[in-house]
Amino acid sequence: MRPADAVLQLVNSVRGERPVSLASAETEQVLQIATALVIELAAAMDRIDRLERTVAELRGVPLAQQREAAAGAEAEAARLADVEAMIARALHATIGS
Question: Count of domains in the chain?
Fold first, then answer.
């Protein structure tokens, strides 16, 4: 099973109402946020690794060189928007409650 498939399986298994099992609802919310962040990070790391390897192979450069390549201002702005969207998804556990 690929890491991305495992993450999707985990996400699908935790959907819906769950009973509160910790000391307080606030503690549960913090745990939900942390879990969402870990899921997002695992999926992102898997995608980043696959993309870096593919680009390095297509460019014919070592993977380490590809990982150190700099991007322009437009790419930086797109990355910032992606980070903001990820934070919104991670905080959905609190906002949606």
Answer: 1
Domain that holds residue 60: 3-10+24-95
* Cα 72 from Cα 15, distance rounded (Å): 38
Tokens, residue 83: 């980070």
Q: How far apart are the C-alpha atoms of 88 and 30, rounded to whole Å?
A: 14
- Summarised one tens digit per residue, pLDDT across range 3-61 is 666 766 766 666 666 666 777 878 888 888 888 889 988 998 999 999 999 999 999 99
User: Does residue 43 form part of some domain?
Assistant: yes
CB atoms within 10 A of CB 91: 15
Q: Are 3 and 42 in contact (CB under 8 A)?
A: yes
What the block records as the tokens of 86 is 């990820």
